[in-house]
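The data are quoted verbatim here:
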Amino acid sequence: MVADIIPMVDPVEYAFPNDEAEAERLDMQHAMQTHLLGDRLFWAPINPNPARVLDLGTGTGIWAIEFADMFPSAVVTGTDLSPIQPQWVPPNCSFEIDDAEAEWTWDEGTFDYIHNRNFVCAIRDWPKLIRQCYQFVKPGGWVEWHEKHPYLLSDDGSLPKDSALFRWGAKFFEASVHFGKDARSPQNLKRWMEEAGFVDVEEHILKLPVGPWAKDQRLKEVGLFESVNMTEGIQGLTIMLFTRCLQWTPAEVESFLLDVRKDVKNRAIHSYYHL
């Protein structure tokens, strides 16, 4: 009997969990972000018949699978550090264990479209990664990133700076700098893309509500998704960064997160962050 060998994600390189609960959170985040984008998988005006598509940091593979179903003529490749993708996938979809920051081994100009979602606290050298995308996308092809900038804000003063939720966002960014994967990086993506040689670069900054407080029905539904993420998933998003990078004890983290969850559930707080 031969046992399967499953590579483990190096906790020094990856800030978040890699278990079944995290896989469920990632799939929920996919549903939320797709809904935020008007129930679309992408915004780039890609060729209606893309031949080769790359999904970097594919996670559970849910985006790649849905894209492959949408474009059956395309060959869709999803890469990730961890093999958590399903075995039963469309025939035009496959997954590879790979580090997006390593040297790529495909031929230059291979892909019509390169996509990524949610590389927050995952990339040390963004300019290098973007230069590789420029090198491996075909002339006339597209690259699209959907990246969170989870610094908590409010427009009506309902999120005081001494609140646990605001302090969580500020501490998350502080910890990300110590971790070597600065969560402020998405603010620089447009400039880095232009410096790499990309043209027709568009940046869309969307508000992502935390909680179902928005009047707009779609944003209300998005906020409900995110409130679940920020209550049920926040322990996994926090524990390693805060204990390793800020030297908090696990008990201090858990006590703090009790107050963060209370703020998330407080309908009087109208908080959001940017995507």
Helices lie at 20-36, 62-70, 126-136, 164-179, 189-196, 217-232, 234-245, 250-265.
